[in-house]
Amino acid sequence: MPTINVKKSDLERLVNMDLSDAFIEEKFPMMGVEVEEIFKEDCEKVVQFSINPNRPDYLSVEGLARGFRGFIGIETGLKRYDVYESDIKIYVEDVKTRPYIAFALVKNVQIDDAVLESIINLQEKLHWTIGRDRKKVAIGIHDADKVESPFYYKEVDEDGIKFIPLNAEEEMTPKEILEKHEKGIKYAHLINDRFPIILDKNGNVLSMPPIINGILTKVTTETRNLLIDVTGTDKNAVENTLNIIVTALADRGGTIFKTEVIYKDEKITYPNLEPKIKETTPEFINKTLGLNLNVGEIVSCLRKGRMDSIYENGRLKIFIPPYRVDILHEVDFAEEVAINYGYDKFTGEYPIIGTIGEVNKLEKKCDFIREIMIGLDFYEVVNLTLSNQKILFENMRLDVDEKDYIEVLKPASVEHRVVRTSILPLLLETLRINKHKELPQRIFEIGDCVVIDENFETRGRTIKKIAGVVIHPTANFNEIKSYVEALLRELKINYELESYKHPSFIDGRCAKIISNGKGIGCFGEIHPEVILNFDLEHPIVGFEIEIE
Which residues, including other chains, have CB under 8 Å from residue 161's CB and lie 6 or more apart? Predict the structure, then answer.
């Protein structure tokens, strides 16, 4: 989970009360925010919080303070933000790679070192939670007094554009930024052959999303008026991100002003801070939680969660703050009531019906397979079911479209955002981590993978697989074939083998396993390019088989 470091004095200033260390350690976990540690840095106390990915509004001290004030009852109910008119316009000129943009102006923000650090940290945390490491959303925060409206968001080629990016001293073209600048090198893969650029009325470059801002609009402690741009590939994510940022700045005393984004066929005014409205019933909440709260008690809990509610015709109409992007279903209201009712008030109950447990048949089969593999001199490893596109697909030489796998909406880490479709890549990653160990190495894993299946409501189907790899200087096809055939023989599986072409294996040294007319797996010698992609140096053979 992402962590944020908060100066205790700054937190106290925003909450408007003194907070003892013991009080922080007791109360914040009860509202779903873990306190990792409290330590001193430069003679000042710092609190490190661990934030659940579903609450990106808690990724700043302003959001934490707002939520905490409601949780302990200082300030409850929906917090409304005034948004004033401005003459700022942004013209969007057919940007294809990152087609969506949202703007806002926040004036009169008193920025000191703590506030500046908070703004930068919030920007970076949002980049890799909602933004998926800038792939989905990128944020630019600028000194508004250095540029003039109207602004233009467009894609350009190399000609005619040069500016000094942040953390640089000389002008660069967009191509030079991608080749020489630290951020350009890191995020170059997010841009194709044309470069998104945000310009002001006078042709000054504010930003080159999603790479870097221009130095002209760099925010300092002297800045008072902030211009925020959010660009991306998902309209909802762009709008949600903007709402989280501007409400955090408003909690610092800033004043929010509207902007008008003008597309070819529509105009949109940002930010939209009107509360969303969803409904539930007291009966649903009580049944979900096993409680017997009356309507007033439920409404009180929701108000502590910074929401308003109206009870009409047996239903609760709930007004959701614009920064709460985690409310998707009425069960989320039940969770909100549980948090603010107090988890410490729940008591356990024994189940009414007693049952006798038994090991699932599939798990019995998996246990038997483990015994076989251990008997074949393999060591079992256990990896996470979440990984990333680079390990699962790019390193394996697989050309896979986004619709062919499931990506986590709000990942705890950019390295763990895709549900694995295969075990074999993670075994190769395990070999990479342990390449300092002596050879040979023989490892296997039995676990769940998720594949796309439109016949399921969730579009995903979980299947159990086993995979194994062997690495040493003379590893070859015949060796892995003998291991696979021994496994299939012990499982009493009737099978046939046929030549198989797979990008991750060497042509002519890979075989498909067929049972009852269906392909259930494959094995062979791993392609040299795959081996190098995982920073390994010796021949590797491997297999993967569906157990079910």
Answer: 173, 174, 195, 197, 205
143 marked as part of a ligand binding site? no
What pLDDT digit, counting tens, does each position of 229-257 carry? 999 999 999 999 999 999 999 999 999 99
- Spell out the alpha helix ranges (H) of 201-293: 235-250, 282-289
| 22-32 per-position pLDDT tens digit | 999 999 999 99
What pTM was estimated for this model as a whole?
A: 0.74
Q: Could you tell me which residues are beta bridge partners of residue 92?
A: 153
What is the number of alpha carbons within 13 Å of residue 50 lying toward its C-beta?
10
The CA–CA distances, whole Å, from 353 to 183, 286, 349, 350, 356 equal 59, 21, 12, 9, 10
User: Is residue 326 part of an annotated ligand binding site?
Assistant: yes
pLDDT per residue as tens digits for the range 470-485 = 999 999 999 999 999 9
- Do the beta carbons of residue 152 and residue 199 sit within 8 Å? yes
Could you report the per-residue pLDDT of 92-101, keeping only the tens digit for each? 998 988 999 9
CB atoms within 10 A of CB 469: 25
Look up the domain containing 45 and give its range.
Answer: 3-72
Question: Considering 270, 297, 318, which residue would you say is the last residue of a domain?
Answer: 270
Asked whether residue 335 is marked as a ligand-binding residue, the answer is yes
Residue with tokens 């490892």, as numbered in its chain: 443
- 387 and 527 assigned to the same domain: yes
Query: Does 537 count as an annotated binding residue?
Result: no
**What does the block give as tokens for 17?**
């009360």
